[in-house]
Amino acid sequence: MIEFYLDTKSGVAPYLQLVQQVRRAIKLGIISEGDQLPTIKEVVGTVAINPNTVAKAYRELEHEGLVAARIGIGTFVIKTLNDPSIAEHDRLRVGLESWLAEARAAGLDEESIEALFRERFRASSPIEAR
Amino acid sequence: MSVAVEAHGLGKCYRQRWALSDCSLTVPTGHVVGLVGPNGAGKTTLLQLAVGLLAPSSGTIEVFGRPPGDDAEILGRVGFVAQDTPNYSSLSVADHLTLGAHLNPRWDGDVARHRIEKIGLEPSQHAGRLSGGERAQLALTMALAKRPDLLILDEPVASLDPLARREFLQTLMEDVAAHDLGVILSSHLVADIERVCDYLIVLVDSRVQLSGDVDELLASHHRLVGPRDPGAPFPASQEVIDASHTERQTTLIVRSHGPVVDSAWMIEPTSLEDLVLAYMARGSMSHGAARASESGAET
Predict the structure, then answer these.
(1) How far is B128 from chain A, CA to nearest CA, in Å?
(2) Contact B215 A15 (CB under 8 A)
(3) Residue B210 pLDDT class (50, 70, 90 cuts)
(4) Minimal-distance CA residue of chain B relative to A46
(5) What is the mean pLDDT of residues A2-19?
(6) How remote is the C-alpha of B51 from its chain's centroid?
(7) I want to staple B91 with a disulfide (CB 3.0 to 4.6 A). Which of B8, B95, B165, B281 is the partner?
(8) Domain ranges of chain A
(9) Rounded distance, CA B136 to CA B127, Å?
(10) Is the pLDDT reported for residue B113 higher than 90?
(11) pLDDT band for position A72 (cuts 50, 70, 90)
């Protein structure tokens, strides 16, 4: 079972945070086809968020074809995301680590590193809808 | 959309002073509504009018389509916890639950006992001896056990420690999920509102500055950061809510009714807190002069 959390400082809409957490958990194989998501009541009872937020997140996941609601039973994962890029993670991680080491050696502090990464990340990202 | 609370030109006058004037708003059912605004904006007055503890001096207010406090049926459907979380100090915790069971047709005794146990209140203790936080917990327990359709809470968590606050919000949200409970709560804690509310009302100087579904509000507001005075006017679809300047930089909070694409500005999403602050600043700027002589005491 997956446990949700909320980062209220991230600027990402709460329902989207839940969507991302489920997607990530499916991608990383933490939950897979047939697994049940916590009920709305369970989620709000632990995270202390609005039930409509959870319902909206589950609807979005349903729309994406990742989960399906079975009336009276709960919401289940119906798709396993075999992310082929996951095999590349290790290689990329090594590259990133050496870049970080290089940045520190060049005298950048944590904040500058983050700022530089974010600035480049944003500049090179395809334009998002929202 | 069915309506939980509707007010038109609502006002309340204490002797010479209008605590609330010309307030119009519509609150749909099935939402958890956050009511925010500076001290003295009229939040408490509005909530007390909504439960029928006060009678309007002008205008109208209706709850579920009827005047609040009109009869026993409407009183049974609406729960209220006042800011000072009043109890009967000479009655014990257990007496409070007995009283609640006799006075409320839909009283849920199991919920009440379970919560009292969970909070760790001693049933035989007199309410007058409870701490501020414990009294708040007792009052909130009574309000939840009443099983209302609409629960109105005036600064419900102000006297609770962070752990008790989180626990209370968890319980409240479980009730919202399980019983389709609608909630209106006033608070200065925007972080809490961000978590639990899906509808926001910003009240400044009696006036509703902003009201709407939180997700829609966040999607339609942006923060624009750019060089000061870029020379070009904003596209017509954007309304500037708040502007702040340094020598070189201008930061705007804008409301836009379409996608914002403008290479001169860095466009970022706004947080709910930014939004609340921007509207509070705007509201107090346009009405600030009128209430400059009044103290911030909330009535």
Answers:
(1) 30
(2) yes
(3) very high
(4) B170
(5) 86
(6) 14
(7) B95
(8) 14-77, 84-124
(9) 10
(10) yes
(11) confident
For residue B297, being part of any structural domain is answered with no
Which two three-digit tokens encode residue B12? 């309340």
Binary contact (A41, B194; C-beta < 8 A): no
Burial B222-243 (b: 16+ CB within 10 A, else e): bbbebeeeeeeebeeebeebbe
For residue range B137-151, list pLDDT tens digits in order.
899 899 999 999 999
Distance CA A4, CA A22 (A): 9
Is B146 part of any domain? yes
Taking CB atoms and an 8 Å limit, are A11 and B271 in contact across chains?
Answer: yes
In this prediction, residues A19-46 reach a mean pLDDT of 91
**What domain range is B247 assigned to?**
219-291
Calculate how close chain B gets to A124, using CA atoms only, in Å: 14
> Is A51 close to B177, i.e. CB distance below 8 A?
yes
CATH topology for the A14-77 domain: Arc Repressor Mutant, subunit A (1.10.10)
Confidence band, pLDDT 50/70/90 cuts, at residue B36: very high
Nearest-neighbour CA in chain A from B11: distance (Å):
31
Q: Average pLDDT in the A8-37 region?
A: 88
B189 and B246 assigned to the same domain:
no
User: Which of B177, B191, B194 is facing A44, going by the closest CB pair?
Assistant: B177
Q: Which residues of A touch B176 (CB under 8 A)?
A: 44, 50-51
Say yes or no for a CB contact (<8 Å) between A51 and B173. yes
Contacts of B215 in chain A (CB under 8 A): 13, 15, 56
